[in-house]
Amino acid sequence: MTKAIVISVACGMLAGYFILPGWFIDISGNLLVVGLCVLLFFVGLDIGMEGTVVEHFKKSGWRVLVFPFAIMIGTYAGSIAAGLILPSLGLRDALAVGSGFGWYSLAPVMLAEYSTSVSAVSFMHNVMRELFGILLIPIIAKKVGYIETISLPGAASMDVCLPVVEKATRGDVAVYSFISGVVLSAAVPITVGLIAGV
């Protein structure tokens, strides 16, 4: 699966650079939304056909919210470490970047008011988090564990990376992934606003 993902991304990059005309960019956003909706529909269909969603919710209850908050704590721990290692970034800036939790279309826009350089770092950080999530989810699922895969993409675990999580793990893990992504996405405007003061 990892090979198929890498090949697909590489083919898309090559096609975008060498083959597709410039006007294609204008419609590519709409095509991405349609494609993502189709992917998520089939993920939901697969989860529903498995028939264990309600059972897993009854077992886990509110404990399912432990995962996104653990991901937040881990992200902030990494951000603090980055802020201490990279003095040019600083602790507050590193925490502001980490607060994007993988949502590259919102966090950098919010941080642009705070600092254009921090906004740029935030964009790269969140894009790389999603990209590495896509590439590493199958490996982490196989070598480490299923539930650990949810932490990799952050907020993207509810949309772009959800089909990858579902394919590499089980239907119940995909449900936790979706909930985690929703919570992290909801937290982004709050945490970025609080840390960066925007």
Keywords:
198 residues, mainly alpha, 9 helices, 0% strand
**Outline:** globular
Summarize the biggest pleated sheet.
none
Average residue pLDDT: 84
Helix residue percentage: over 70%
SS-based structural class? mainly alpha
Characterize the structure shown.
This protein is mainly alpha-helical and 198 residues long. The chain has helices at 2-19, 24-50, 53-60, 66-85, 91-98, 107-111, 116-143, 162-168, 171-196. It has one domain.
Briefly say what this structure is.
With 198 residues, the protein is mainly α. It is built from nine helices and no strands.
What's the arrangement of secondary structure elements?
Elements: H1 2-19, H2 24-50, H3 53-60, H4 66-85, H5 91-98, H6 107-111, H7 116-143, H8 162-168, H9 171-196
Helix pairs in contact: 2-9, 4-5, 4-9, 5-7, 5-9, 7-8, 8-9
